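Data availability (excerpt). The following record was deposited with the supplementary files.
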Amino acid sequence: MSNSLPRFQSISPLERMLLGPFVSSVTTLLDHMLTKELHVLSKLNKRMRLIVQFYVQRKWSAVDFLHSFFHDPHHFLDFMKNHNVILFGAPVFQFFDRTWNDASHPLELCLHVESLQNLVDAMEYQHYEFRQETTGGASLEATIQQELQRTKVHKLKSSGERNSSELDRSPWGPYLFTQGDTKRLRIHIVRCDPYRHIFTFYSSALMNFICWNCAVSLFPRSTFIKRRTFVTRQEDLEWRSSPHGYHSWFEGYAKKHGIKTIGLTLWEYSEVETGQRFEISFAGSYPSRNRVNSEFIYRGSTLTIYPGPTDETLTSNGPSFEVLDFKSGVTRTDSYLRIGEPKLWRFVYVSILLSQAEQPPSQRVGRIAKVWHMNNQQEIRKANSNSTRANGGCIITDVKTEDEDNRSNIYFEYIQLK
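Predicted structure:
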């Protein structure tokens, strides 16, 4: 008779506490856990997985985050979708790092100059007012018109090409919009795809942004797990040194929260996210922001694309870049990393490894291209033989330990909006 009795798995004291009625205490407790520890906790059993999932959906809800700045966040998300707008800055970094509490710091917004009038309309709808600068016009449109008149004609071309300078990808602004005494938006106007401006930041930890349906961290494992930021600058740009800018804020934040800045060094950090990155267009490549993937915390939602040996495979409407470390020979003397266009820097990188400087340029390029294609074919075969889906360590999707690193996997991490 005893064999017919149902069996119930015992509940641990920790589970009893987390399943209790005090939601705030659960959130406070999990706030003090590292991201890697949250991932381990979610794998203990189904109950713990649901608890961590509940915490994640509350803590990383980008719609709730935007609601602190906009009275109609869904209307603003539609504006972001239609005009390829991205958000970055101190609040976005704190959102990823789980330290964001209020709208005390200004939210940075980056968009193309062609969307200027749509931006003005969106700001008016969200009840934000333009704050005139001493050297600018009475409105944002007048200020940008002055910038256009001061800019040389050949500089008005799209500055998003990979071989253009960081200076060409620098923004106009920032221009301040305010609502009341606390809510502030800083607008950055660029002549390239907005995400390309992110690549001009001083170091890797700053490269996090929110799109209309996803939040992206380009170096999640280094930044939020290893607590490191690698210098990536190639030029001395004046806007980086603003005492009230994003870079200045991060210097103080890094000291307070134990994030180490790493410049040029002979020490090799094998776990840094180097290599080629490819991604299809943001629009349509992710699930709708109104859907919630209940599996993402423990199954992972990392998007992995393996590049092929043909140029067609390299074509992309979204982020397409390569991260090289100091061994490539193309970094600045005080930088550990460089971000560049994949094919351009790949040739430089391979030519250094092959030491073909003594060969004629025509022979050198032909041999370099042949070896580059062969390496990619080998990587594809290796990747196809690996049955495990790549998980790159995105702070919300999954956490990847160092011994699981697979060089053949090229990943681009994101988290889905609710």
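Summary of structural features: Confidence is low (pLDDT under 50) at residues 280-317, 347-418.
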